[in-house]
Each structure stands twice: as structure tokens, then as C-alpha cells.
Amino acid sequence: IIFSVFQRLAAGEWFTARVSSCGLFHIAYPSAPENVKAELRTIYNQLCQDDMPMVRRSAASNLGKFAATVETANLKSSILSMFEELTQDDQDSVRLLAVEGCAALGKLLDPQDCIAHILPVIVNFSQDKSWRVRYMVANQLYELCEAVGPEPTRSDLLPAYVRLLRDNEAEVRIAAAGKVTKFCRILNPELAIQHILPCVKFSKLQAFLLQELSSDSSQHVRSALASVIMGMAPILGKDATIEQLLPIFLSLLKDEFPDVRLNIISKLDQVNQVIGIDLLSQSLLPAIVELAEDRHWRVRLAIIEYIPLLASQLGVGFFDDKLGSLCMQWLNDKVYSIRDAAANNVKRLAEEFGPEWAMQHIIPQVLEMATNPHYLYRMTIIQSVSLLAPVMGAELTCSKLLPVVVNASKDRVPNIKFNVAKVLQSLIPIVDQSVVDSTIKPCLAELSEDPDVDVRFFATEALKTTNQVVMAN
């Protein structure tokens, strides 16, 4: 019954039935009798030669799944012949799907058969007249390399990859650039420096032959490179990273396209592990400081998120000298997401360097900003106080932070006052009960009678918390 269904679908008058049948062969084949298996292979071969490109596309797309269920002997005699027909199809939409079959078949064949039948196809596809086929090769390159093994990769696929890095189409270069790090893992460092880096780094002798990826005319190519190039540092080692990669990092850090800068910033820790914080700070820190004031807020946000890690690696002295003022500056940023991240940043710095350092370098500046004329900035300070209090401890919270919150409860802006109520509620578990009774409860009681409904609501909720604490004690 099942076989008759396959026959009807595969021989259907409408191409849609034939398209659907291609996705069912790998399900039915393993449990079919031997005579039916032979017939199924014949039917699939006919579908690979169908007049309709849509059917051939479906056959190419499902060939890898079908091949995984076919016996080794029939794999070489039947499946490889179907694969070769699909790779020579006149429709590029069929050939690009056959690229995926290269990796799938390569994993099923012996190394010798893979080199004999799959490797030449990959090399030819890397020079295909259709950029979409070349794009698919670039996108699937690492999987293709795994299929053929390290030695053929170095001898045959390396030149093909270099061609893809130099391709005329930006989309192909984007896909190839995104595989730089993975591809270099397969090569030894000497080959990577000799063959891959010349495509990444500019050379006057090569200017008329190729555009270096780090200054490619397409911002998306540069962005793809920036997202992976930092991962090459552990592969190439310290000396090659300093000599070959650092100039590229600096170039990409100054790129006009924000996503390029963002991708470099987010991976700085990979370089730090190789060259050390001293050299990283000397070479890249000036560019990082410049990006801290970048006009694109997402770039500034990425810098803020990296600051605690950088602080822990630089140490207190270097941080105070170079980056301390930036952290305070971000609290007054025009973008809320930056101010929010900056508030969390000062908390993480206080955790890293300790309450004494925070008392000397953070608290005075935070308290000074509490009187900012703009209520949004005053609200950021209230948020910073709530985040710093658990780190600073009960004594410093009562003496330095709590008075700021109490003063803010008299602010003319309702948004400030109901945030004060929420902050006071968060301080109750931190301070002593005597402070709650003498300072926090009277302040909340006053806010609970405020003309604004939101202020009254949050103050009342906070008062409930104080009463619950009293009952618990």
C-alpha cells in the first residue's frame, strides 16, 4: 500500500505531488523489502531528472536524508550518480541545494571516495557562475571541510576559500568572512597567516587584485569580519596577533558603521586572553575611551557592559586614572538604556573594588548628581542608590544613602516620589529596625497622603512591608 502511494505521488500529473514525494523516501526506505528498495532508488533517480525545476530542487534538498538510509554499496552506485546529475543542473537554485548534499554525502563516504567524488564538486562550486551557489559554498564551508578532512582542506579548499574572500559579490564575501575563524582552526597558524590574513589585511601589492575585508566597500562584510576576527587571536598566538591582527582591530574599532564597532567591542576578552591586559590597554584602550562617547547609543551600551570586566583586569589604579570619570558621565546620558546600564555598572564596580573604594570614588559624585535640574537624571540617582545599598552595607547606607532618598521624597515630581517609596521598601531588609521606625516609616506615611494616586499606592505598599517585618520580628 505504501509503495503504491509513493508511485502515485512520484508519477503525479501535478508537480506538487512529485515535490511532496521527495521528502518521504528517507522514511519509507529503511523498512522496505529489497525489491521495493531498488524500485524506490529508481523512482528517486527519475525525480532528480524531472522536467520541473521545483521537483529537482526538492530532490536535491532531500538527497542527504535519503542517502543516510541507503546501504553503502548502493550509495556509491546509485546515490552518487544522482548527486552528480544535480550538481550539473542548469538551474542555480538546484545546484545551490546540492551544496548541502556535499557535506551530507561526505560524512557517509570513505575518505578516499569523498576526496574523489565530493572534493572536485566543492572546488567547482566555489567558481560557479551563479553567486548564489558560491554564497552557499561560503556559508557551508566549515561543514564541507569537516566532510573532506584536514589535509584536502589545506591543499584544495584553501585556494577555493581565498577566492571566496575575494569574490566580486558582497554577499559571498560576507558569508566567507563570517567563517574566517572556523576555517583557520583547521589550518595551522603559518598557513592562516600566509593565505587568510592577506585577504583580511591590506597590502599595496594586492590592492588591484582584491579589497581587504577590513575596509571592504560593504559595511555588512566588515561587520561579518568584526564578529569573528577576534576569535583568530587564540589560533594565531601572541606574536602573530600583535603583528597581524591588532592593526585590523584598530581599523574596525574606528569604522563608521556602528555594528562593526559593536562586534569588535563585544569580543575584546578573546584578545585579552592572548596578548594580556597591559598591551591591550596600550593599543586598544584609547579607541575604547573614544567609543565611550560614540554618537550611537548601542555602541556606548556595549562599552558600559564591558567596563566591569575591564576594571577587574586593569586594577583599581589604572581604572581610576583612565575610566573612572566615564562611568559617572554615563549616569547623565540622554538615553535611558545607557543611564540604566550605568546605574548597574556602578554597583558592579562597587562589588569589584569594595565599599571603601566606592565610598571614596562613587558615592560623593552620585550624591552630587542628586540635585540635577532634570527629574530623569535625579531618578537615575535614586535607582543607583537602591542598587548600591546592598553592597555598601547598613552603616554606610544609613549615613550616606538614606538621607538622599528622604530628601528626594519631597521632590515636586510624582515619578520621583513613587520611586522613592519603592527604594525605601527595598532598604527595609538592609537597615536596622530602629532606622525603619525613626526614618523610613514617617517618610512613607507622609508619601501615603500625597495628592498623586501612584505615589499613595506605592507608599502604602511599602508601609505594608514595614508592618510585615514588625510582625515577623
Overview of this structure, please?
With 473 residues, this protein is mostly helical. It has helices at residues 2-10, 15-22, 25-28, 34-48, 53-67, 72-87, 92-108, 111-125, 131-139, 141-148, 150-165, 170-177, 180-186, 189-200, 219-229, 233-236, 238-253, 258-265, 268-275, 277-291, 297-314, 316-322, 324-330, 336-353, 355-361, 363-368, 375-392, 394-408, 414-427, 433-447, 453-472. 41% of the residues are buried.
* Helix content percent band: over 70%
Per DSSP E runs of 2 or more residues, the count of β-strands stands at 0
Low-pLDDT segments = 200-211
Q: Roughly what fraction of the amino acids lie in strands?
A: under 5%
Helical/strand content category: mainly alpha
Q: Specify the overall morphology.
A: elongated
Radius of gyration: 32 Å
Overall mean pLDDT score? 82
Number of helices: 31
Distance between the termini: 76 Å
| Largest sheet geometry | none
Describe this protein with a few key phrases.
473 residues; mainly alpha; 31 helices; elongated
Please outline what is shown here.
Helices cover 77% and strands 0% of the residues.
Could you give the topology of this structure?
Layout: H1 2-10, H2 15-22, H3 25-28, H4 34-48, H5 53-67, H6 72-87, H7 92-108, H8 111-125, H9 131-139, H10 141-148, H11 150-165, H12 170-177, H13 180-186, H14 189-200, H15 219-229, H16 233-236, H17 238-253, H18 258-265, H19 268-275, H20 277-291, H21 297-314, H22 316-322, H23 324-330, H24 336-353, H25 355-361, H26 363-368, H27 375-392, H28 394-408, H29 414-427, H30 433-447, H31 453-472
Helix pairs in contact: 1-2, 1-4, 2-5, 4-6, 5-6, 5-7, 6-7, 7-8, 7-9, 7-10, 8-11, 9-12, 10-11, 11-14, 12-15, 15-18, 17-20, 18-21, 19-20, 20-21, 21-22, 21-24, 24-25, 24-27, 27-28, 27-29, 28-29, 29-31, 30-31
